[in-house]
Amino acid sequence: MGFLNLFIVAVMPVLKIILITAIGLLLALDRMKLLGPEAKHHLNNIVFYVFSPALAASSLAETMTFKSFTTLWFMPVNILITFVLGSALAWLIIKITRTPKHLQGIVIGCCSAGNMGNLPLVMVPALCEEPRNPFGDPSVCSRNAKPYASLSLSIGVIFMWSYVYGIMRMYANKSIESSTTGVNSPRDTSETVSGSCTQAALPSSDCNTSHLPRTISSESSTRMSGLMKIMMRIKMISGKIDLKKMFAPAAIAAIVGFIIGAASPIRKLMIGNSAPLRVIDGCAHILGEATIPCVTLIMGANLLIGLKGSDVSRNVIIGIIAVRNIFLPLSGIGVVKAAHHFGLVGSDSLYQFVLMLQYAVPPAMSIGTMTQFFQLGQGETSVIMLWTYAVAAVTLTLWSTFFMWLLT
Q1: How far apart are CA 175 and CA 167, in angstroms?
Q2: For 125, phi and psi rounded to 5 degrees?
Q3: Angstrom distance (rounded) from CA 382 to CA 101
Q4: What is the DSSP letter of 345?
Q5: CA 271 to CA 342: how far, in whole Å?
Q6: How far apart are CA 303 and CA 297, in angstroms?
Q7: DSSP secondary-structure letter at 114?
C-alpha cells in the first residue's frame, strides 16, 4: 500500500477525534453551559468508575485467553520503557530551560506519561474499520484492536497512579516547602524543618521528623552514611504510592476480564451466544461502548482552560512537544524493532503498531487531574495540554502513517 493511501487511512481516526473534541470544547463554553465544571466532574466520574471498567472487562473477557496473554507480556515492559525514557528527557528539559520548581513535576509527568488509554481506544478500532487498512480483515482487526487498547489503558493507569503520581507529589511537596522556607526569617532556621513539613498540606505527606533532634546541624546531616540516605529515599518514595489509585477501577476490571477469558469454565458461562450468563457480558459491552465518545468530549472540555493562557515558558512547551512528538516516537521504533528482532514480540503488525503508538501519543489527561489534587500549576498544565494536543493532531497522523509503512 502506498504512503499516500496509508496517510488517508491514518488521518481519518485523527479527524474523528478532532471533531468530537471540538464538540466537547463547544459544550464547555459559557454560552452552552452543558459541560461546565460540575457536569464535567460528574461525567468524568461515570467514565472512571463505570464506562472504562466495563470496556476493559468486556473486551478482554471476549478475546483474551491465557495463551494470548503470553504473547502480550511485552506491553507492560514497553510502557515502562516509555515512562523511563520520558523522565530522562524531562530531566534534560528542566536543566536546559531552568524550569521553575513548581513546574518540574508537571514537566516530568507530561514527558513520561502518554495518553495510552483514550487515544488508542479511539484510534486503533477506527483504523481497523477503514476498508483499506493494512492490518487485514476489518472484523478480525477490530476484534483484536480493543483488547490491545484496553490492556494499554489498564497498564497505563497502574503506572500513572504509582510512578507519575509519586513523582509529581514529591515535587509539589518540595515546591510548597521551598515557598514556606522563603517567607521565614533567618532567625527561624532552627524550626524550618518542622515548620515546612507542617505547612506542606498535601495528602499523606511524609514529613516525619519527630524522631530527629530539633537542632540537628547541617554538619551532622552531611556525615549521614550513603546507605542511610538511600534507605530514607526508598521509604519516602514508597510512602507516596497510593495503592487505591494505582489499582483504579479500569485496572481491576482488566484483571477480572482476563480471569474470565483465561478460565475456560467461567468463560463458557459468560461469553458466547449460548452462554447462560451472556446477559452480563452484553450489559458490560453496551456500557463500554459509551467510553470513547465520553472521554473525547471530556478531553475537549479540558482544553478550554488552556485557551485562557498562563505564564508558562515557551521553551518548556517546545521542549515537551519535542520529547513527545520527536524523540520518544523515534525511540519507540528502535525499541519495538529490537524486541521483534530478539523474538520478544510476535509478527502481528497490529500489535507492533500499538506498541509504537504508545510512544507517539500526547501527554495523559490524568496529569491535569493530579494538578487539581495538589492545587498547583493547573493553568500551566492546561496550556501545555492545549499546545501538545494541537501539535499532536498533525504529528500523530504522520507517525501513524510512518508506523504502518514500516510494518507493512
Answers
A1: 12
A2: -60, -35
A3: 18
A4: S
A5: 35
A6: 10
A7: B
Q: Which residues contact 65 (CB under 8 A, 6 or more apart)?
A: 261, 262, 267
What is the grid cell recorded at 141?
482487526
Rounded distance, CA 38 to CA 28, Å? 11
Three-state SS for 252-274 is: HHHHHHHHHHHCHHHHHHHCCCC
Element (H, E) at 145: helix 138-159
Q: Count CA atoms closer than 13 A to 271's CA, side-chain side.
A: 21
Nearest alpha-carbon partner for 53 in 248, 336, 326: 248
The CA distances from residue 329 to 129, 349, 408, in Å, are 24, 17, 18
Give dist(CA 51, CA 57) in Å, integer. 10
The domains found in the chain, sorted by start residue, are 3-181+226-407 (1.20.1530.20)
- Work out the number of other CB atoms within 10 angstroms of the CB of residue 346: 13
Residues 6+ apart with CB under 8 A from 393: 14, 17, 18
What's the residue count for the chain? 408
Q: What's the whole-model pTM score? A: 0.73
pLDDT tens for the 408 residues of the chain, in order = 566 777 877 787 788 888 888 898 899 888 887 888 888 888 878 887 888 888 878 877 877 777 777 778 899 899 999 999 999 999 999 999 988 888 889 999 999 999 887 788 778 888 888 777 888 888 888 888 878 887 888 788 778 877 888 888 888 777 776 666 655 544 444 333 333 343 333 443 344 444 444 444 454 455 556 666 666 665 665 555 555 555 668 778 878 888 888 888 888 888 888 888 889 888 988 998 888 788 788 878 877 777 766 678 889 999 999 999 999 999 999 999 999 999 889 888 999 999 999 999 999 877 877 776 676 777 788 888 888 888 988 899 899 999 999 987
Residue 13, number of CB atoms within 10 A of its CB: 22
Q: Identify whether the C-beta of residue 142 lies closer than 8 Å to the C-beta of residue 125.
A: yes
Burial, 39: exposed, middle or buried (Cβ in 10 Å; 0-12, 13-18, 19+)? middle
The grid coordinates of residue 324 equal 513527545
Cα–Cα distance, 291 to 333 (Å, whole number):
29
Tell me which residue of 256, 263, 257, 255 sits closest to 67, measured CA to CA.
263
- The three cell numbers of residue 130 are 477503514
The position carrying cell 520503557 is: 81
Q: Which three cell numbers stand for residue 270?
A: 459468560
